[in-house]
Amino acid sequence: MMPTFSALPPSVVVLSLGTMVLMLAITIKRSEIIDAVLTLLTLLVALAVLPMGAAPSALFAVDDWHRFSSALIILSSIGVLAMSWRDPTVREAHAPDEFYLLLLMSALGAVLMTAGRNDITFFIGLETLSLSLLGLIGYRQHRIEAGEAAMKYVVLSGVSSAILVFGFALSYAETGSLVFAAPHALHPVEPLLAAMATVLVMTGMFFKLSAVPFHTWLADVLEGTSIPVAALLSVVSKIGLFAAMLRYFAGFDLMTPGSVSDEVTAVALLSMIGGNLLAIGQTDLKRMLAGSSIAHIGYLMVALLAPGAFGLGSAGFYLAAYAAATIGAFAIMEAVSPNHTHLNSLQGLFRTRPALALGMAVMMASLAGIPPAVGFFAKVYVAVAGVSAHRDLLLAGLIVGSVMGLFYYLRVVRVMLMPATDEVSTGRIAAPGNAVLISALALVTLVLGVYPSLLIPRNPIHLGADVEAATLPVSTQTAIR
Amino acid sequence: MTQFFNSHSLAIYIVFVTALLCIVVALSSVLGPRRVGAARGRSMSIPYESGILPSGSSRIRLPVQYYLIAMFFVIFDVEGVFLFSWSTVAVRAGWAAYATVLVFIAFLGVALAYLWRSGALEWGLRRRPAGARDPSRPLPGHVLPGQAFSEGARAP
């Protein structure tokens, strides 16, 4: 390995090289099998090199948190790859080759984001992810709803990036460094500037995370895209952003009441309640899962607001549980009917295709937080973190949100139990990749629900922010500690 | 008081900017001449009050290659920026940096080959990119290059 590259996280090197090799392969010969194999190979190698270290630098933090969240991102991307293999909706307007290229690039962006220790590395990762997601959302270019979704995404993504960069600029004006960390509210010369910088950066991130009140684009965008892209959008990009957000607040004392802490609390409460309210009224499964995803971001913020022994561990566990159940739900929708995602399409699924219906029931139980699925333990873990930090208001929101969530998650199960309609076709067999994916995710959801200790870190994870504190300018040392 | 001014310079700046803008807008609305009816004149409702008269419609469809070429120009222009900044320290940065630059150029070369092969560099009548599906239905907004310009010229 070249000395210049040694500071790059190894998985980023592998993913970049894989992107280029895939592009070269498409240039030489367009063949979907070659694309899919290359994508899978790149993702697997990137997963394999995750434990490797990198030279310490001020740009990348190659620590346990990066490894864990990158592993989740890469595994989710493999899930999306399995889902989109032989998906008819992906290839209806265009050759499918670029789909795999964009998929790999969005994984690269998300992985880069989890390692970003500098505003610039984070922003490059974020834009790589956003731009490739834009291509994926607009992939079915002749469909009017895909155009609408892509337009909404590009406008809101651009606006939120602008807000984010303005926040970085203010932060730079305040601290004189581009370290990716919230400027400390107590020490700086100008407290208002530091608070404004943090609030602007957070607003940009909330837009991309689609937390209430910045959530309005998510349901429309998910509805307009194909199912694999919807899964990618609601899992991979959220894991990447949330992982980065935890790193952003690693040195910030969120326990002291203040404008930043209050804003995050308000957004978390609004997301828990608003997301569930949005999902209750939906009859389209994709829109319902959009609401559910917003609510889960709210639950995750409880872990963000409860720093301490449980904070990072519970956030990681919750992200894993959320990713498995959400990708599983999307994969089952894909197997049932790729084009028709109305709630009716699931009617009578327990009679016609019992295995799929059972899988869907497991995923819904996990999202709702019903044992023995892993979602139950994830919620308990987050609640424990909240209790240990005395976040009573947030815990009340968590409970109210979960009760509201039960209604629409269980409604899916009820629709599946209803007698089958005549026009439901029973003959369609799930694509092999998708079938493997669904069974694997259902197994993971149940096994982790019974043995949650498999995913609980024995030692508390550290964000490794203070390793090279000595090499950074003096003014920033307080900010990252 | 001095302490307040020193520690809240940004807040004071915001207050002053807001106040100044309010004053400017309020003054121009109070003092500015107001024309209604016939006194308004035709020239008030055209884009450039004292410039050339606009002619034709602004809804011209440009060929999509125009945007593509513009984007490629930006992309490969940025390549030049990186190479120039490297060239100033080329000797001091050593072989490692040289290898990095070579990798960078190789990546761009692959990208260029991909663009060429996909037909993005074709100017003129559009050929289907290799591997793309046969267009059973033409895409909306697909206009031949010559046609677009002649339409614009014909508009009143």
Report on the structure:
The complex is a heterodimer of chains A (481) and B (156). Chain A is an all-alpha fold. Chain A has 2 domains: 1-252; 255-450, no CATH class. Chain A is 69% helix and 0% strand. Chain A has helices at residues 10-28, 32-48, 64-84, 97-115, 119-137, 144-175, 191-209, 216-224, 227-248, 259-280, 285-304, 311-336, 349-352, 354-368, 374-388, 392-417, 432-450, 474-480. The longest helix of chain A has 32 residues, at 144-175. Chain A is globular. Mean pLDDT of chain A is 86; it is low at 465-481. Chain B is mostly helical. Chain B has a domain at 63-126. Chain B contains 5 helices and no strands. Chain B is flat. Chain B starts with a helix and ends with a helix. The relative contact order of chain B is 0.09.
List the helices and strands and how they pair.
The complex is a heterodimer of chains A (481) and B (156).
Chain A: H1 10-28, H2 32-48, H3 64-84, H4 97-115, H5 119-137, H6 144-175, H7 191-209, H8 216-224, H9 227-248, H10 259-280, H11 285-304, H12 311-336, H13 349-352, H14 354-368, H15 374-388, H16 392-417, H17 432-450, H18 474-480
Helix pairs in contact in A: 1-2, 1-4, 2-3, 2-4, 3-4, 3-9, 3-12, 3-17, 4-5, 4-9, 5-6, 5-9, 6-7, 6-8, 7-9, 7-10, 8-11, 9-11, 9-12, 10-11, 10-16, 11-12, 11-15, 11-16, 12-14, 12-15, 12-17, 14-16, 14-17, 15-17
Chain B: H1 2-7, H2 9-31, H3 64-87, H4 90-118, H5 145-154
Helix pairs in contact in B: 3-4
